[in-house]
Prior knowledge:
Oligomer: heterodimer
Distance between the termini of chain B: 11 Å
Largest interface: A-B, 38 and 32 residues
Structural class of chain A: alpha+beta
Shape of chain A: globular
Mean pLDDT of chain A: 96
Number of strands of chain A: 8
Structural class of chain B: alpha/beta
Amino acid sequence: MSAAATELGAIIRRFGGDPVVDLPFWEGCRDGVFLLHTCGICHQAYWPASRCVQHGDRSMSWTRAEGKGTLYTYTVLHKAYTPAMQGKVPYVVGVIQLAEGPFFHSNVAGCAPDAVRVGMPLVARMERHDSGLIVPIFYPL
Amino acid sequence: MRGACAIVGMGVTAQGIGLDIEARELRTQAVDLALADAGVGRDAIDGYIHTYLDREDLRYMGLAPNFSLSMMTGGATPVASIIVAAAMIEAGQAELVACVYGQAQTSAAARAARGGHSIGAYSYGYASLFGLVGPAATHALHARRHMHLYGTTSRHLGAVAVTQRDYASVRPEALGYGKPITLADHQASPLIADPFRRLDCTRDTDGGCAVLVTTAARARSLNHKAVHILGAGMGHNIANWHQGRVYENHDNVAPARARAFRQAGMTIDDIHMAQLYDPFTISPLMQLEAYGFVREGHGGPFYADGGTGPDGRIPTNTGGGQLSAYYTTGFTGIIEALLQLRGQAGAGQLKRAGTALVSGHGMNAGVQNTWAHSTLILGNER
Lengths: 141, 382
């Protein structure tokens, strides 16, 4: 594993992720592409990486997604629970249903918390997180 | 299953914030109280189930069972431990099993082990990258979806908080004893994880609980206070995650409900009270719908109209629940059901208290936001 991958892996692990199987996703973010773990047989897309419910790991690979979706549900947090959110209270954490199907947690930015609505169309921008990762943050389309 | 096993003893220690009693001592006191309640000696316990993951306390407790299991499926564990106790008895591995809980969540030691945080600051994997931390935020996602789909409001959630506090306010063992709240109090309490306000949330407490499970035959020979296990079931919301329906479902109640009622040979109309796992106000509201006590989406108005009060269609969380009594991560509802079924609920005693439905809910790992669910149907007759 390259030094860059090892460093990325260490950050992923710190946030409770899998530094091996999910690594391509985070490398994709760094390179400006939104990847999803997809079954080649039924084309069901998954995030984070997992086996296909129907077909196991026979045909899983990372494929390019649009990076668009709609807001499925959200919460507005009134306390900064993590260092990255200091000075950003109140902030919105949404669950975005991606165009390809999977749910993805992220911040909804570029919009006041009280203007956020379930069902609003959103698009991802890759932005630098405090941790050093490049992460998708979602903005109104 | 129906009536094969019974609960013949219960022990409940002091419950509260800052008790300054070690967790192990709380568990041991709970066992002592349960043994005294059942009228059996320490040597009667031949099976031991420790809810949650700690080292066993058998030497300290002076017990000598044949097995000791440590169980963990989140807040579904206490109800699940009773199912496992019955299963071990039916498998011929024990005759009397103790299911035991005891935590000192507010102690300095417990807080230090969590890096100075309360339980409310648990982290859930990648979502924490975006500042989503703690069970209030994860449950808020379900509450917001319910509001979107059905028009449920913060005032509906407030009705849950007020109803449970009303129940607690007449129960001396509850933290909310003598402290009723109004809907205005709820609406004035600060937002924590929108739509949840402070009064939508539980808080950590210290305390111990134990119950003793045995065969129906042994129960008959012990005392007249046996509560019978009529049915049980489990479900896991990961099934709904795979269907993209996780946020519409608080839990995967359907398989748990079906199995429990089939075993009991009962229908929802045969249930006199519900004791539903309540970390946040949305939880009992959505479970009442999932069990079929009220139509999908109607839980909010049902609470607001008094449907869960002592004279309502289904009295729910009648001791104040974890929101207003005390938080024993799943034992609170079991203990309240036992008190009601034994006619020992004091000023909170229901007029109709022959059967109870008890649920457990918990465990949550990563972005899928899914919990385990466990169901028990209990009755004071076989």
